[in-house]
Amino acid sequence: xxxxxxxxxxxxxxxxxxxxxxxxxxxxxxxxxxxxxxxxxxxxxxxxxxxxxxxxxxxxxxxxxxxxxxxxxxxxxxxxxxxxxxxxxxxxxxxxxxxxxxxxxxxxx
Length: 109
What we know:
The protein has helices at about 10-35, 35-60, 70-90. By secondary structure, it is mainly alpha-helical. The longest helix is centred in the first third of the chain and has 25 residues, at about 10-35.
């Protein structure tokens, strides 16, 4: 592929953003790969807590309120389901990353 001299500023910005996103994903993948199971579990707990708070706050601000109990139960079921799946992934003897190709994340950047 040859580069033409007629690159617009948008093309240059897009290339720089793609390179930045690629570097960020590579760094985050390495960082997450070095975390222990306890650190990953704590991170998941914080993520679930934030998700739960966001869902409950959004449910509390709706115009057509279906009822506080229904909103809380649906939010709670969402968080418990997510936690159950994450727990299964953590407890499984099989590493889920084995089933993905080595360059899986680089295909998105």
